[in-house]
Amino acid sequence: MQVLETVKVSGQSKPSAVAGAIAGLLRSQPQIEVQAIGAEAVNQSVKALAIARDYLADNRRDLIVQPSFVKLPQADGERTAIQFIVTAIARV
């Protein structure tokens, strides 16, 4: 099992900055992980993924996004997060 580069998103994250990080990572590797805890963080993540598609269009690449729930260890126990596995593919 390969270890994916992880982008952690908070409710205060700027979607354009997160999109830049996502696009930059996907230019050098085929797949990454985006993690978000809470409704605001998930909202910012989805916005960032939409923006990242535009950033990657110049490279003729598109995204496949697979969301799932995961349990993440925290200092005060466990938290449920949304995990997006993001794969870059050739744009048709």
Automatic annotation (TrEMBL):
Coiled-coil regions, chain positions: none
Superkingdom to which the source organism belongs: Bacteria
Protein name (database record): Stage V sporulation protein S
Organism: Deinococcus lacus
Xref: Pfam families: SpoVS (PF04232)
